[in-house]
Design a protein that fits this description.
With 186 residues, the protein is an alpha/beta fold. 31% of the residues lie in helices and 18% in strands. It is found in: Cell envelope.
Length: 186
């Protein structure tokens, strides 16, 4: 008795194998899924530098009302970018508050720009009250701090704008004790 398969079975197996390999090669080169275009490139954010005009920025305050930062024009403006979860930001907040309180109606204005949630900021302000205005933004590669020159995206970050709306100084990191008054002189 012979254990060899009939010749006809061998031919059928070989033809099936050749057809299977051919179909695999054809399908690999003919993907039926619709082609998707790559996402469009993100517009590059131009980080402002000293001497540049302050970029046009409108952000919501804690009540959700849009605040155009150009409305602070006419007096120097210190913008302090912070977040409730940022330890160095929290540490410098009392000094910023004292500086803002000492400025009166004609001195340097102080604006807090929180890269945080409204809930996080409200909770923080119940523990550490701040009298100067605060606006909110969502952290990201094109947030207001980046447009104001914070290319590294680190906090805290402060920017001094002169009365004409031009960026005078930029500072990455917290203020040292007693540093704000000298730094904020335009």
């Amino acid at each position: 008795m012979s254990l060899r398969p009939p010749r006809r079975t061998v031919v059928v197996v070989v033809i099936a194998a050749v057809l299977g390999i051919g179909a695999g090669v054809w399908f690999a080169g003919h993907d039926e899924r619709p082609a998707t275009a790559p996402p469009p490139p993100r517009p590059a954010v131009v980080a402002a530098q000293p001497g540049d005009p302050m970029p046009a920025i409108t952000l919501p305050d804690l009540q959700g009302k849009p605040q155009d930062l150009a409305s602070f024009h006419g007096r120097p403006l210190l913008i302090n970018v912070w977040a409730s979860w940022c330890g160095p930001c929290v540490e410098e907040m009392p000094a910023l508050t004292a500086f803002a309180d000492a400025q009166g109606a004609t001195g340097v204005q102080v604006l807090g720009l929180a890269l945080d949630t409204p809930e996080g900021v409200r909770d923080f302000l119940t523990r550490v009250p701040v009298a100067y205005p605060i606006v909110l933004d969502t952290p990201g590669p094109a947030d207001a701090s980046v447009r104001l020159g914070n290319a590294q995206g680190l906090l805290p970050y402060s920017v001094l704008i002169d009365a004409q709306g031009r960026i005078v100084k930029q500072k990455l990191g917290p203020f040292a004790a007693g540093e704000i008054e000298a730094w904020a002189t335009p």
